[in-house]
Design brief:
Elements: H1 2-20, H2 32-43, H3 60-65, H4 74-102, H5 107-115, H6 117-121, H7 131-145, H8 152-174, H9 184-192, H10 197-221, H11 223-234, E1 238-239, H12 243-253, E2 260-264, E3 267-271, H13 275-297, H14 302-319, H15 328-340, H16 344-360, H17 365-369, H18 373-424, H19 427-438
Antiparallel strand pairs: 1-3, 2-3
Helix pairs in contact: 1-4, 1-5, 4-5, 4-7, 4-15, 5-15, 7-8, 8-10, 9-10, 9-13, 9-14, 10-11, 13-14, 13-18, 14-15, 14-18, 15-16, 16-18, 18-19
Amino acid sequence: MRSTLAALALLGAGWAATLWLVPWSDERVNDLFVYRSFAAPVLDGALPYRDAFLEYPPLAAPAIALPGLAGTGEDAFRAAFAGWTLVLAAAVVVLCGALAARTGGDRTRAMLAAALLPLLCGAVVRTRFDLAPVALLLGALLLLVASRPRAGIQTARTRQSRALAAMTALGLAAMTKGFPLVAAPVTLAWLAARVDRRTTLGAAAALVVALALPAAAALAMSPEGAADAVRYHLERPVQIESVPASLLIGIDAIGIGEARSVESHRSDGLEHPAAAVLTAALAVLLLAVLVSLALLSRRGPPRAVVLAALTAVAAFAALGKVLSPQYMIWLVPLGALAFAWGRHALAAAVAAAIVLTHLEFPARYFDLVAREPLPLATIGLRNAALLAVVGLALRELRREQHLLDRRGAAVLAGHQHRVQPRILGGGRKAHLREGHETL
């Protein structure tokens, strides 16, 4: 209890810094005006997609509009959104602690590390709604790895209900903002290795239903508006802060094509003759990473599936054509849990990516758009740190897999060694003696 209160106090102090203390309070670039412009008509009865444009999945609508109940004026909405995101941040801190406790990590270290969120990220944490899907994703993972009762039939029933609840929560997270969906292959593969086929299929069905019902509601409100939201993301150019943008600027610098700046989809992007090929290649790489994560974590302990799921999110951020500063919020649980597990290199790489983003955004964002050398170098380092996060996490999962294989081989060898005296007719005493030596 004391550790929880200490972590929440640290979180509250950091939140205050994002409101009143420079540089954490710098909010010159934020989405609050966009959110207010959506919340005001929706709270007056307008429908998302039909009457008010929404670029996000359907469950983003309540996450954005809820603070508007306190008022949609500039000051009232700003204050209410800060309070709403603080509640979400507190949930993330507590969930990180619970996940650490369930996966062999230090609960206090996880919560204190997660509580550094506002100091690492700055005002972006209270001017975006990304904490809502992050909290739902962590809740899904906690349900997935929660301890089970001992009684056999109760265990089976509880396992089934928790699997269904976990995948439902994951689907709801994806319907709030799409990125948690990349954790689905990892979680389903891990479940399939531990539960019967019926439970696995039921969990997959729960995920599909959690995705389908909000999507159906969006289509019912406006098929055209829902299609526009999908097209909005498909048609976006490579965003200036992304990994592919760093690569395109690099090949432009050596004279291969021209990376032309464009203002599009409420962000700054790049167009280049190689952009389509590069983004497709990175999408294939992302798919390969997701498959690797699912295979490496499939037979691992609960820690493995949590690490793999959060790494899938980091890979999505690193390899996608859009990488906004708020994506760093997605990485905070991975860094906090890596710290709690004693995986300090991974935690340091996550922290480096977040801090480098804060150094660039928002203070030097417009210098980045103008392609000044310092912000370009800062973002290049940040993107390298993101790729290092994915690589280090894959290395940790390979180590887990290697240890698991060694344990399995040792158990098999021990079993064969204990059985051998019986086969040779050594008798019960010989069997017990050999078994004792093996242990």
